[in-house]
Design a protein that fits this description.
With 329 residues, this protein is α+β, with helices and mostly antiparallel strands. The chain contains 14 helices and 10 strands. The structure holds glutamine.
Length: 329
């Protein structure tokens, strides 16, 4: 039985444009305001980017607008830790389970005190940052974190100073998380330093185009389709994508996977990345978020594209993008 289904680039471009036009005037959700900087970002910004395995990138709207990466940085640093320590150690020191709770939940730490659970919620992400090498060296760790994100995105990424300052003076909940992890021996470097590096990585500026390249790098098994460089070993891609599939939208992840069918990760800055293994990486950005911290327009846009092209990851078909160069192996 042939379960391949051919999708042309033209069909993809039409779906991306339709998604943009359909949702650009949607007024649901509101900017995150617990970080003062984010409250003041223009709520009308909206961009979509899709990066294919041969490097072609389809964009629409504000896809080159720089915004705060926020929790999407957790995916990158999880990849860095996986690369340095391997999956068994990651499982043991952090875990790979959904919490079913909000991203900044303290209760989740109390309930699973043996385990921060996953590097894609705040507790596990701060724990992951604490594992980044060289342990004990804040400058060296920052360089490793920033360089890894740049390699995934295929170009340099810079700190948004104002966002970093804004988060640093308002991150009391995360400070509590860092020290609670310390009391459970689940943080592996100095807690305040780990918290500061976590806050800094969340304050990096990225564009939807860059994030689509990061997502495409994961979709292509660690091979960055723009730079042609291998960023991580191919065997790691399924681990990273699994983490996204299980907890990428926090307490809303099940609903998302059920209805949309693409492992994805959100950030409260309004970005979302989605990874469709072997097919493409997608990113959408728009600041207004829902109660779980996921961008409303970005969710609608990605869902529209997935539904329109009938691309649910579990549909049993193998989507084949045609009219392109072959995927490198
Ligand atoms: N920096 C934010 C925080 O820790 C990131 C949260 C998010 O994007 N969901 O609260």
């Amino acid at each position: 039985m042939n379960r391949d289904r051919r999708i042309t680039r033209e069909e993809l471009k039409i779906a991306v444009n339709e998604a943009y036009i359909s949702f650009r005037n949607n007024k649901e959700g509101k900017n995150a305001d617990y970080i003062p900087y984010l409250a003041n970002v223009d709520s009308d910004l909206f961009g979509i980017a899709v990066c294919l395995p041969d490097g072609e990138t389809i964009t629409v709207g504000d896809s080159d607008q720089v915004f705060g990466i926020e929790s999407i940085s957790k995916v990158a640093t999880a990849a860095l830790v996986l690369k340095d320590y391997g999956s068994e150690t990651l499982l043991d020191m952090i875990g790979a389970d959904a919490t079913g709770m909000p991203f900044n939940s303290i209760l989740a730490i109390l309930l699973e005190n043996e385990h921060p659970s996953t590097p894609l919620v705040n507790a596990g992400a701060i724990s992951a940052v604490s594992m980044v090498r060289p342990v004990g060296n804040s400058c060296g760790k920052w360089e490793a974190i920033q360089q890894n994100i740049a390699e995934l995105c295929g170009s340099e990424v810079h700190l948004i100073d104002e966002l970093y300052r804004s988060e640093s003076v308002s991150n009391h909940n995360n400070r509590a998380i860092a020290w609670l992890l310390k009391s459970y021996d689940r943080i592996y470097d100095e807690p305040d330093m780990s918290l500061d590096l976590y806050t800094r990585q969340c304050s990096l500026g990225v564009t939807a185009r860059q994030l689509s390249i990061m997502a495409a790098t994961i979709a292509c098994g660690g091979y960055n389709p723009i730079t042609g460089k291998r960023v991580f070993p191919a065997t790691m891609a399924s681990r990273i994508t699994s983490l996204m599939a299980s907890v990428g939208f926090y307490e809303r992840t099940g609903d998302w996977m059920f209805s949309c069918g693409i492992p994805a990760k959100s950030g409260v800055g309004g970005g979302i990345i989605g990874v469709l293994p072997g097919i493409f990486g997608i990113a959408a950005f728009s600041p207004p978020i829902d109660a779980a911290g996921n961008s409303v327009r970005a969710q609608l846009a990605i869902r529209h594209i997935m539904e329109n092209l009938r691309l649910h990851i579990f549909n049993g078909e193998r989507a084949v993008m045609v009219e392109g160069k072959p995927v490198p192996v």
